[in-house]
Every structure is written in structure tokens, then in C-alpha cells.
Amino acid sequence: MAIRPDYLVRETGQNLIRNWLLSTATVLIVTVSLTMLGITVLVGYFGLDNAFVRWNNDVSFIVYMDSTATQPQIDAIGAELKASKLVDTVEYYDTNKTWDLFVKIFKQTNPEMVSSTKREDLPTSFRVKPSNPDASVVREMAASYRPKTGVYDVDFPAEQVRTVQRAAERIRLWLLVGVIALLIASVVLIFIAIQTAVFSRRREIEVMRLVGATNWFIRIPFLVEGVIQGLVGGLLAAGFTWVLGSAWKSAGASMKNSLLAQFLWQPGQALLTYGALIAIGSFVGAVGSALSVSWYLRV
Amino acid sequence: MIKLDNVSKVYKNEHAALRDANVDIERGEFVFLVGPSGSGKSTFIRLLNRQEFATTGNVWVAGKELGALKNHDVPKLRRNIGYIFQDYKLLPNKTVEENVAFALEAIGRPRQAIRTQVPAILELVGLAKKAKSRPDELSGGEQQRVSIARAFVNRPLILLADEPTGNLDPATTIGIMKLLDRINRTGTTVVMATHDRGIVDVMRRRVIELEMGRIVRDQARGVYE
């Protein structure tokens, strides 16, 4: 038995209008939970992955020489690095170059440290850019220089990257837990909204049952109501995610040196996220209303 | 048309609403169910459109044994059975014609069929001029006429009425009974539960009397007692 579109629109519309307060609350909670999910996906997944790819491509390590290292020891390390097939470029920072860099970094922020430090206290170093940007290969290669004579330490920035990544992974895990809890709350709220709609229309439902309406004919307007609530929540969440994402990008553009400013995403990834939010919203609405009608509308 | 074969209905609280009922109702009959409150009249009616299941025995309606009827076949059965409530159960936010049309919409009838059937049935029940009125603008008798129109608009084989005149004054009751009689004359089987001694005695149709769930009398052209 086909359901007429005008009947479906009218009945679903009446349901939504009669329960407008509960419908609004349902849409809002779906919106909040999906906006959280959208931001988590954009910043925590796409943003972090893109940033990590960028850091990996730019990965390098610094071999700091001991201040007591002799010139032959320094030359030996330099020659070894230049001869290595795993090294793309190597640049030696002698005392003067290191001092210039030190002054440039700390002159504004910590002039006392600059005035109390002597030029010869600073270690000379080799800035190495490996030919293979794979972080594990770079880490292994960097570690192989640590025990060499004359070497004070090897600094591997990818370690910090990994620390940031681990912290970000923990944050996004907790965010996901929160999102899942909110999505479950959304399903429950849609369940209750449909239950209320069924209760407020119990007289119509009784009449429909007795005149011979099929289960699905009675159920479909309620199912559509739940899907619409989820869909509207998903659309609003996509909109809010776009607004918040744009704000994040604008903020990042104004603080170029910040680590977080590198958590950016591609337009295609954003579109994928918006589409997924709308689909998840509709799915949540369908699940909540399907559970409710199968529970409360047994004919 | 309707056959009850050793039918008993025992509710969960172990109250036996109907005991060993054996009844045959032919097509086109008009049957009154009489008896005091709690005697099993409403249960009898509810068994006929499978709002209730018989605990034991078999209920046959329009050639179907309801105990064996699959759930998805129940709507088809109910399209052959009109149901009239004591309290009308009209939808307050819909007009008279919308209330009647709703019964056709709910079974997926096309719009064109609804446009022709609804005015015709409102003409039959004498409410053509009140098609645009809402239920709260109608008298009790008019509301019951709408309820009858809704039950009969799909031209069912059987019309079940559970105390349809219970809320009406005697003058209005006569009008409703005339209408049900008219519907019965079209060949529709009418089964009506009632407490109204006057109409049973005046109409002199078949009377099935129930007491404590048992059929104590089944009389053609009977009176109330």
C-alpha cells in the first residue's frame, strides 16, 4: 500500500509542530554532538594528519658537538655525514653562526640570558636533512651519531612531533568518547520525542488501526519525523563546523609560527566531513525513531 | 459471516470475560448484544476484529479463522469491518470531511476515490452541510453520525458498534438507529452492543444476551429481556 506524499508531508509536519519544543531540543543535541564530531574530525584527524605529513617531509636532526671536541673530531663527523647516502643536505653551524642564531632567538625574549652567555659556551652543530624523510629511519640514523667521539647530543625534532601526536591522539580519543555519549543521548532523545508524538496521536493511531491501516503506513510518518530531526541536526552541525573551522583557519593564519596553526585540512576533506555529519545525523534520527516505533507501535 | 466456536477469553488477571461462546451470524443480520456491564459484550466485539485473541476456541470472520491470521493480514481483515465507538473518537483538529477522509487515507485510497466517497457518505448520514465543521461544533448525535460515516465509508461487510448510543438522548438515539438500520439494509452485517432496552424492544432484531461471560439467550426478533 503506497503512502501518498502529501499525506506523509502533512502528518509528519503536524507531528513536528505539535512537539516543537521536544523537536527543537532533539535537533539541538544532535547539532551539538555532531558539531563536536565535525571539529574533532577536521582538526584532530585531518588537521593532525596533514600537519604530521608536513613535519615528516621537513624532518631533520641536529648533531651538537661537544665544546671540548677537537677540530679533527668535528671534521670527521662532518665528512661522515656528507658521505652518507641517507643524507640530503648538511650544514655546519660554527661558533659565529650559532651565536648569531642564539642572539636572534633570545635577544627579544631573554636579553639577560644573551648577556650572561659567552660565545664560546655554545656548542657547534651540524644541521642534517635526510634524503629519506621516514621518521623511523631518521630516528635510527640520528641515534647512530650519539655515541660518536666529540658528539654532545643529537636532537631529533620528530620526537617532539611524536609527543604532540600522542597528546593529540589522547585528546581526540576523549573527544570521540564524548561525541559517542552525545550521539547515544541524541538517539535516546529522538526515541522519547517519537514516543511523545505517538502518545499525542494515540487517538489517530487507534482509528488508523481499526480502519485497517498497515503497520508501516502508521509508522512511516514517525520514522520520517525522526529522520528529519536528525537531518536538520546534521545540516546545522555541518554549518557550525564550517563556521568554527573557518575561525580556526583565520586564527591559525594570524599566528603562523604556532604549532596548532599547522593543523589544517583540504577543502575535499571538509566537504567529506560535512557530508558525513549530515548522513550520521539522518542515521541517528532513523535509529532513534525506528527503535521507538517498533517499541510503541506494535499493531 | 461470523462464527464463534467454543470461544473463551480469559484475561491475565484470570477474569473470564467470555466462556464457551457458540454463535453463528449470517450475512446481513442485525444483532444486538445485551447484558449488564462486565458481561462480556465488549470482549465479544473486540474478538471479531482481532483486537483480542480468543484464549480457547475459534473465531471465524468473513471466511478467516482469526487465531490463524498472520499479523500482516489483520489490516486486510479490518478493512472489511467498520467500528463505531461509544465516545466517537473523532479527531478534534480535523473537520467532518477530513475525519471521514482520514479513514480512507489511512488505507491508502487514491485522492480521487476519497473526493467522491466522502461527500456521498456525508449525504447518507445527513451531514453534507456540516462537512467543514469541526467536531466541537457538532451535537453528540451529529458526532456519532460522523463516526458512523467514518466506519462505513469503505463499505465494510460488517459494522461493529460498541454502545453507540450510550452517550445520546432518546430522540437522537432513534436517529442513529434509523441510520444503522438503513446501513444494515444495504447488506452490511451489524453487531451492536447496547444497554438501551428501548431500541432493542422497538427494533425486534436478533438478541444475544450475555451474563458473566456466558451466552444465556440467543433469540431471533427478541426483546431486551
Question: Which keywords apply here?
Answer:
heterodimer, A: 299 residues, alpha+beta, Alpha-Beta Plaits, 2 domains, four-stranded antiparallel sheet, 10 helices, 73% helix, rod-shaped, B: 225 residues, alpha/beta, six-stranded mixed sheet, 7 helices, globular
Describe the structure.
The complex is a heterodimer of chains A (299) and B (225). Chain A has 299 residues and is of the alpha+beta class. Chain A folds into 2 domains: 5-52 and 161-296, no CATH class; 61-156, Alpha-Beta Plaits (2-Layer Sandwich). Chain A is 73% helix and 8% strand. Chain A has 10 helices and 4 strands. A 4-stranded antiparallel β-sheet of chain A has the order 2-3-1-4. In chain A, helix 2 (20-57) packs antiparallel against helix 7 and helix 2 (20-57) crosses helix 9 (215-254). Chain A is rod-shaped. The mean pLDDT of chain A is 84. Chain B has 7 helices and 10 strands. In chain B, strands 6-7-8-3-9-10 form a 6-stranded mixed β-sheet, with helices on both faces. A 4-stranded antiparallel β-sheet of chain B has the order 2-1-4-5, with helices on one face. The model of chain B has no long low-confidence stretch (mean pLDDT 91). The A-B interface holds A 1-4, 6-7, 14, 203-204, 206-215, 217-218, 299 and B 49, 51, 71-72, 74-80, 83, 89, 91, 93, 102-103, 105-108, 110-111, 150-151, 154.
Describe the structure concisely:
The complex is a heterodimer of chains A (299) and B (225). Chain A has 299 residues and is an alpha+beta fold. Helices cover 73% and strands 8% of the residues of chain A.
Can you summarize the main beta sheet of chain A?
A: 4 strands, antiparallel
Secondary-structure element string of chain B: EEEHEEHEHHHEHEHEE
Strand order of the largest sheet of chain B: 6-7-8-3-9-10
Series of H and E elements of chain A: HHEHEHHEHEHHHH
Question: What is the residue-mean pLDDT of chain B, rounded to a whole number?
Answer: 91
The percent of residues in helical segments of chain A reads over 70%
Bulk shape of chain A: rod-shaped
Q: What is the number of helices of chain A?
A: 10
Rough outline of chain B = globular
